[in-house]
Amino acid sequence: MKIRKIAGGFTAAKGFKAASCEAAIKYQNRRDMALLFTDVPCAVAGTFTSNRVKAAPVLWDMGIVKSGRPARAVVVNTGIANAGTGAEGMRLCSETAKHTAEILGISADEVLVGSTGVIGPNVPLDRITAGVTVMAKNLSDSAEAGTLASKAIMTTDTVNKEYAVEFDLPAASGEGTVTVRLGGMSKGSGMIHPNMCTMLGYLATDCAIDPSLLQKALSNVIKDTFNMITVDGDTSTNDTLLLFSSSLAGNKPITTEDESYELFCSALYSVCHDLSVLMASDGEGATHLLEIRVFNADTKENARTLARSVAGSSLVKAMIYGKDANCGRVLCALGYAGPAFDPANIVITMTGKSGSVCFYKDGCVQLFDEEKALAILSEHDVHFDCDMNMGNEEATAWGCDLTYDYVKINGDYRT
Question: So which domain of life are we looking at (predicted)?
Answer without folding.
Answer: Bacteria
